[in-house]
Amino acid sequence: MSRSVSSSRGSESPMEPERAHRACEKCTRTKKKCDKALPACSRCTRLATTCSYDFIYTAPTTAVVEPGYLAGSTPKEAYGQGIFDPAFDVSSSMVMALLSSRNIPWREATERYFETMNPWFSVIHPELFAIRTDNLGSGASSNVDQGPRDPAVALLIVCMQLVSQYDDEAAAASTNVNEGKDMIEMPAYRAAKRVLSVLRGLSAPSIELVQCSILLALFEFGHGDVMRAYVSIGDANTMAMVISLVNADRAVLLLWRDECDSDTSIASTTSFDCSLIHMPLQVPSPAADDLLPTSNLIWHNQNQSPTRSVQRHPASVAPSVPLGPFQRNCQCAMLYTRAYSPKPQGNPNALLEEYVELDIATRALVEAMIMQTSRWGDFYECFATCTCLLLFLYCRQLRAANTISAAGPFSPTADDIAPKAIAGLNFTIRIIADTTTDLNDQLAHRPHLLAPCSPVTPYSAYHCLMVLSHLEHLIPEADTRFHNIFASLHFFAKRWGVAGKFLGY
Fold first, then answer.
1. Residue 37 and residue 162 share a domain
2. Which InterPro entries did the record assign (predicted)?
3. Which CATH number do you get for residue 34?
4. Which of 88, 76, 284 is nearest to 197 (CA)?
5. What residues have CB less than 8 Å from 243, skipping those under 6 apart?
6. Which of 19, 31, 235, 395 has its CA 20 to 30 A from that of 410?
7. What count of other Cβ atoms lies within 10 Å of the Cβ of residue 369?
8. What is the tens place of the pLDDT at every residue in 356-414?
9. How far apart are CA 4 and CA 407, in angstroms?
């Protein structure tokens, strides 16, 4: 194609080189000065790029067009045909727009979730999820980035992004990333919540909807809305029960247990929301012969690296058996269920005996994790959950000992339990102080370590601060430990909004 050029100076100077009548395409689009030289301008020559003067320039537009105008109707009429329309339906493209509108590749979002969250909160089976998504865009005319066609799977991807997202650059540059932010008011979260309500109300319960409800409960719990998380857990438990009743085939039930691990995954979430609001447990504890999740990353001291191991252990397996992070969380959830189950009133001695048994079992679990790995970080979430449980048990032991002492002036049982409970509190606070101090040192140099941080960790720190503030005269170095643990909440606030609420943001 010949260029449409003309001399910009006419014929007044025959010695002057001929120039194009306008700037080249590259200089025009980058808004750079062009000398209009032929056959190529000096800038394109310097950059070794193609210089073209024959192009159609389309100016960018910032106009916002109402969808109603595109359909030939007024915005008011378009609004009336929204969610109240009987023919209204949720499409997968509508759900995936929650990610594409923010330029978030959905495959990167799922990879980040599996790297940071799923090791300790294994709600989604990686292999089965890959089977559902690897075939997307496999056709000749398909688009790899179009996402899944099932709205429930699309919503699950959005929920995976919600629970794993946080601002890496802001976390590295600022100490108050979430200050003034309310993550519960995020448009993406509110839209995901609405989509889940529509899909749950108009379609049959599915594994994906159960997983979505659990992940949204984790998001709500991590950002401080505990009551809403409790309701979400109830929804997930109800759908799981319906699926178990409908799918009577044993093969389907085995697939369901491997896919979502309904008892253990929901119980692990219920354990930390019920520990705060003192509501009845919605999910029963796994039975002793229930199988724990089969695949986990396990740390081996000889190789000094994590390796993937496929195992099947009963829920009553001894703590000394090496297990992965989520399997440890399942064991801790069983202890939580025992501790928070309703107890008969009027027999404080029986309560003390049960609390002592739970104390021994929890400490054995903590010791097993310490012996299994040389790094706190491999079991941060389970350490935090165990310390919350220990604080609860020791405070209840002190209360029971006080009740026994009030009933009689001389009680050998109360005199023996109270010092042990105080020593147990000191032991637990020392664990929390050591882990948070180590975590603070690491986060100061590597903020990306916040990505796998569990929302239970700031709750553990907060409960520890409450104990220190009330029993500072009984805990050695209470003031120093208080300030070290309090400083950790600033780091946690960059990942989970509930830590910022504890700090008064």
1. no
2. TF_fung, XnlR_reg_dom, Zn2-C6_fun-type_DNA-bd_sf, Zn2Cys6_DnaBD
3. 4.10.240
4. 88
5. 205, 206, 207, 210, 256
6. 395
7. 22
8. 889 999 999 988 888 887 666 668 788 888 888 899 899 888 887 777 777 666 666 66
9. 104
